[in-house]
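[SOLVED] Need 3D model of a two-part complex

Original post:
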Amino acid sequence: MSIPLPSLDFDPSVVWRFLFNSVILEGARTTIIVAILAQALGLFLGLLSALMRMSKNPLLSVPANFYVWFFRGTPLLIQLLFWYNGVPQLFDNPDITHQLTSFRVAIFALGVNEGAYMTEIVRAGIESVEAGQMDAAKSLGMTSGKAMRRIILPQALRVVLPPTGNEFIAMLKNSSLCFAIALVELSNAARSIYSTNLNVLELLAVASIWYLVMTTAFSLLQAELEARLAVGLRERPRTLFGRMTEAFGTGRTRFHD
Amino acid sequence: MQGIFPMIRCEGVHKRFGSLEVLRGVTFDVARGEVVVMAGPSGSGKSTLLRCINHLEKVNQGRIYVDGQPVGYREVKGKFVEKGEREVARMRASIGMVFQRFNLFPHLTALGNVIDAPIHVRKMSRTEGRRAGRAMLEKVGLSDKLDAYPAQLSGGQQQRVAIARALAMEPKVMLFDEPTSALDPELVGEVLEVMKSLAREGMTMIVVTHEMGFAREVADRVMLIDEGVVVEEGPPAQFFTNPRHERTKLFLSKIL
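Solution:
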C-alpha cells in the first residue's frame, strides 16, 4: 500500500489574481451589509424581548420566552429556508414572493435568529446593574422607563458590548449559510468562481483572507468602542499596540479600585 | 394645607415582606424644618421606613403624607388606590434621598450626576442646570471635582456628590439612609459637616444613622425604632440622659 503524496498544487498567484476580483469584492460587500443590518435588527429585537421577558406582565413575558425558545431551538438553516421557501407557499401570491429577495430574507432571518440570542445577552447586561441605581434614579423623580433609558441601559451596554462583538463576528461568518437561499455573499462568490475554474483551494484562501480582514477590523473597532464606554471606569490603553492587545484579549484591563 | 399639616406624617404604617412584618404600626410626625434622627438595631425597620416615605417600598397598611399629600396612594371615595407611575415620580422629585452605598451613576461625571435629573426630570435648560449643578457641588465643597467620575472620588466625596445630586432637585425633605455607614472613619466628618450645614439652613431631614454625636448635636428629636415600632422619641438631651424605656437603655448601653 502506498500513501498518496499531496501534489502541492496550490498557486499563490491565483490567490492574488482573485483577491480583488469584482465578484469577490461584491460578495464581501454583501456579507458586511447583511451582517451589520442583521446584527442591528438582532440587537433591537433582543432589547425589546429582554425588556418584555423581565416584565411581570405575562402578556409580555410569555411571547418573549416563546420567541427565545423557538428561534434558539431550531437550526438557522431551517429558519432561512422557512422564510425564503416556506413563506411564499403560505401566501401563494407572486407579488409577495417577488418582494422576498435573498438579500431581504437574509437580513430578516439572520436578525430574527440573532434577536433570540441577544435577548439573553441584554438581559444579563441589565441584571448586572446594581439595584441601587434604579432606586437612586427613581428617588430623583424618574419614571422606570426614563431610568432605564438614562441610567440602566448606558451601564448595561458596557456588559452587553463584548459578547455582542462575538455575536457579530459569528454573524459575519454564519451569513455564509445564506448560500442556501441563493445569496451571493463572500463564500458563495468564491464557490461560484471555483466551480468553473476548479481552483478550489485558492478561492477558499481568498474568501478566508477577506473574512480575517473583516473580523480583525471589527475587533479593533470594538476595542475602541469599549474604551469609550468604559469612561469613568478604567484607563484606556494609550498606545495603538495597547489597544490591539486588548482587542485580541491578551491585554490586561486596569480598573480603578 | 401648608402650615396645618406637618411636613411628614406617618399613620400606623405596616410593611410586610412575605411573612416577615418589618414595620408594625409606625406613627409619627416631622414638623417643617425639623431634624429627626432615627436609631435602632440593624433589622429594626429604619431603612424600610425611609423607603416607604418616598414609595420605593409600598406600605401594606397605614398612610404616609409628605407636605399634606398622601404618598403613593390617592383617596377615591374613602378607598386608597395606588397613584400612576408619573404621579409617584413627580412626588419623589421633591423628596431627596441619600443612600448608604451612595448609588452615584458611574457613567456620569460628578456634575453629570447632579444635573441629570434637573435637566431631564425638572426640564431645566442645560445652561441653567449646569449653573445650578456647579452651585450645588460648591456647596458641598467639591467645586474642583466637577469633571471627576465617581470611581475617581473617595467615599466621602462620592457621598457629598450624592447629597448635591439630591439637593439639586430642590426637595422639600431630605431622607438620609445611613449616609456614613459605608465610609472609612476618617471620611465620616466631611459628610456630617455638609449635613449639619443643611440642618442649619432649615431643611426638614430624617436621618437614619449610628452617629450618636451627630444626633446629640444636630437633631431636634431622636427616635428609637425596634422590631418595627417607635419605642421612644424625644429631644436628644432627654433621649440620651434620661431614657424612659428599658429597650432604649439597652440600645444606648451597646452603642455609646
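Edit: Chain B has a mean pLDDT of 94.
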